Amino acid sequence: xxxxxxxxxxxxxxxxxxxxxxxxxxxxxxxxxxxxxxxxxxxxxxxxxxxxxxxxxxxxxxxxxxxxxxxxxxxxxxxxxxxxxxxxxxxxxxxxxxxxxxxxxxxxxxxxxxxxxxxxxxxxxxxxxxxxxxxxxxxxxxxxxxxxxxxxxxxxxxxxxxxxxxxxxxxxxxxxxxxxxxxxxxxxxxxxxxxxxxxxxxxxxxxxxxxxxxxxxxxxxxxxxxxxxxxxxxxxxxxxxxxxxxxxxxxxxxxxxxxxxxxxxxxxxxxxxxxxxxxxxxxxxxxxxxxxxxxxxxxxxxxxxxxxxxxxxxxxxxxxxxxxxxxxxxxxxxxxxxxxxxxxxxxxxxxxxxxxxxxxxxxxxxxxxxxxxxxxxxxxxxxxxxxxxxxxxxxxxxxxxxxxxxxxxxxxxxxxxxxxxxxxxxxxxxxxxxxxxxxxxxxxxxx
Length: 447
Prior knowledge:
47% of the residues lie in helices and 13% in strands. By secondary structure, it is an alpha/beta fold. The protein folds into three domains: 3-124, Response regulator (Rossmann fold, 3-Layer(aba) Sandwich), CATH 3.40.50; 144-311, Rossmann fold, CATH 3.40.50.300; 316-443, Helicase, Ruva Protein, domain 3 (Orthogonal Bundle), CATH 1.10.8.60. The strands form four sheets. Strands 2-1-3-4-5 form a five-stranded parallel β-sheet, sandwiched between helices. Helix 2 (38-47) packs parallel to helix 3 (64-70) and helix 19 packs across helix 20 (434-443).
């Protein structure tokens, strides 16, 4: 944790106490401000942004509980740690029901307080990242924005699955949008306001994987200088996305199965079982059924996950979405470009082994290299520039090819369907002037 970024507000009417704590935390690299009563605290909270608030419960005029009730902030509130004496522990627990992160009793060691602040800050950091991800989804949603009947059917099934709490297995080739589908399920569920935690579990040694997933206690192994929450704990009340689940070892599969079934786990080096409320969404680019038959993946874990199974088709099986995807990727750029008609033909013909991710990268690269306002063949990667490639030859070397005008008519028709008849968008995708498009629509009877 980079402590210098953590902004802490200490709210306590005992000035000497708060000054000592403030000095200790400042020396550790925290940014600290102080308020001596609840009213001043509310003013500071409304004016500034804090990551963690140390809030004393017993204060005159306005208690810590009152501050917690009065403070309203919808976007990203700080995490509140209640400060209490032994006599008011029950009150602190009530504060947690109102949304406080945790409480600490006086007197306490500064090390314990630092650990608690670190955990609270970690939780808020995750929430911030999720807000950023949700605002970024408008661009990413183009990956699953579709006119494909197959994918529309999959999306409808995903919406229904989102209403349950069952684990989900998403399969598909690399680049088909498995993580985005996981986010789509999360954002369509009752857990949408909770964290979405993504973790790539592929090719990680068991010793590291276990500590990353379940966390560890201080002293559990060499280098464990403090307690650390794992991804299961960070995903509490939200969704944990485990990518490349087919790559983990059988021994870790067993531990994972138990945690998925019970929502309980032990930290590495821990003796206390921790209970969480999470939903697991797993993803793989392997055929897990075949992996199970070969003895490389546990039957029980596979069937636990595969009860809710979503398979994402490769882009080559939904090429009708390519114009729509390209339009979406271009819309997300400040310097809006058009696509030359020949470029679109290449994009439609290419088999896209890297799927939507590869298409996005190609468009991003072309936008950067393009010197004018229209992306041309020379802005594409070599494998798309070279017409002698096998994939291109397969598409064009046929004695039964229809006349060029028929191809052009079909291409314009497909693009118009993908953009819902919007002629402005269609002309930009086709890379032609709107007047030319109007003329061709009339010429080909596409009105």
